Fold this sequence. Notes:
CATH topology: c-terminal domain of poly(a) binding protein
Mean pLDDT: 97
Number of domains: 1
CATH architecture: Orthogonal Bundle
Oligomer: single chain
Largest sheet: none
Amino acid sequence: MSRVKRSVAARKKRRATLARAKGYRGEAHKSYRRAKEALLKADTYAYRDRRNRKRDFRRLWITRINAAARREGLTYGQFMHGLKLAEIEVDRKMLADIAVRDAETFRRFVECAREAAAA
């Protein structure tokens, strides 16, 4: 079996790893071994937190909608239930944006939800 010489490929791989670890603290940006470990952790956190970001934003939107709905005399659950009965399909991201930027439009949504829930 022939011998495989890896020096060029290995050096390229190590250089790429150290380039990705640029800006890390301590040995994590100097030592290949530490940089590799730091990148494994960083990639794990990045993967996990891409999913967590979606949860965090949904929680934020719900909090904003709840606050705006309570100003109008409804809870979040009552408001969303009323919207569903009124067959108004607006996602939470848009509702939260409307609640923050345009109180009058949100008030109209609340009225529609209140009427649908009462009927």
